[in-house]
Design a protein that fits this description.
mainly alpha
Length: about 220
């Protein structure tokens, strides 16, 4: 949430729109954390709730329309290329087609909540020849459900999300310092040297066992004349 706060402060509300648009084309970048962060920032007063949700919705729908056109023009070739990134590339297209065959355009209402279909639902609708007007209606409704659900959760749980972000930041800094200490110990610190053994001087007479015992007892025994 802190990184999103910095991004919004630096570039304003358009950063939220661009972020939701980019996440449509970058598979490792899910949109749910961005929506949760936007809702949490709205809960703390950094953003206006309705404006943040509207911009996030706009970025989502624009990305969906782009994918719809790509699927409509590229057909199944695009779908096979996209399914290479999925967990089950062999059944990716077939399962999506089965979902649309059973539910029709209403599958777009839940497409963003279903793993697998959330990444190929829009281009698949274009490849299957769904009319553009029908696609826009159901895709916008599905995007409204998806965006407002996660933005609303972030808004309602903004205190818990802020505490979790602070805790994660502290744990990250602590782990970073620990790693630095380990690396510096391996590279720069040498083991402490042992003290050299005490050598017996040749000009110093050795004490006999009896003299040592006498000195410990506090009495110095003189040898008889």
């Amino acid at each position: 949430m802190e990184s999103l706060d910095v991004l919004i402060r630096a570039y304003g509300y358009p950063a939220l729109f661009v972020g939701m648009l980019i996440e449509q084309f970058v598979p490792p970048m899910p949109g749910e954390p961005l929506l949760l962060g936007a809702g949490a920032l709205a809960g703390t007063g950094h953003l206006r709730l309705w404006l943040a949700a509207t911009l996030a919705l706009a970025g989502t729908v624009v990305g969906d329309l782009v994918w719809y056109e790509i699927g409509r023009r590229g057909g199944h070739r695009v779908l096979k290329w996209m399914c290479r990134l999925s967990i089950e590339p062999d059944t990716c297209v077939r399962r999506g087609e089965d979902t649309f065959a059973r539910r029709g355009a209403s599958a777009l209402l839940i497409a963003k909540f279903l793993p697998g279909l959330n990444s190929i639902g829009q281009p698949l609708a274009g490849a299957l020849g769904m009319p553009r007007r029908r696609f826009v209606i159901f895709d916008v409704l599905g995007a409204v459900l998806w965006v407002w659900l996660y933005v609303g959760l972030g808004y309602a749980l903004h205190d818990q999300l802020a505490e979790a972000a602070v805790l994660a930041d502290r744990l990250g800094h602590r782990d970073h310092r620990r790693r630095l200490r380990i690396l510096s110990g391996r590279q720069g610190d040498a083991p402490p040297a042992l003290p050299p053994p005490v050598a017996h001087r040749a000009d110093q007479p050795r004490r006999t066992r009896g003299e040592a015992h006498g000195r410990r007892g506090g009495v110095h025994r003189r040898s008889p004349p």
